[in-house]
Amino acid sequence: MNPDVIGWLASIVLLATLIRQIVTMARDENAQGVSRWLFLGQCLASVGFVAYSLMVGNTVFVATNIAILVTAIVGQCIVTRRKSRHAPT
Description:
The chain is mainly α. The chain contains 3 helices and no strands. Helix 2 packs antiparallel against helix 3. It is elongated, with a radius of gyration of 15 Å. The relative contact order is 0.19.
């Protein structure tokens, strides 16, 4: 079996779980249990992994890590919006 097929399948599973988590968070009105540091760390790690993947020339990792970076940005936006709506005034 082509190793890239395994990589793409693993990528699909990982992204499906991350997207499902974002959908769950989006339904939580106040997002109190979600740390902003989670997404900051995920963004920084993803940028590093994209750079590394580009350097080693691995298309599966480049695409996957860009997609993971997008999920981190979306997650951060949702958490920030939810927490600002429910901040004490």
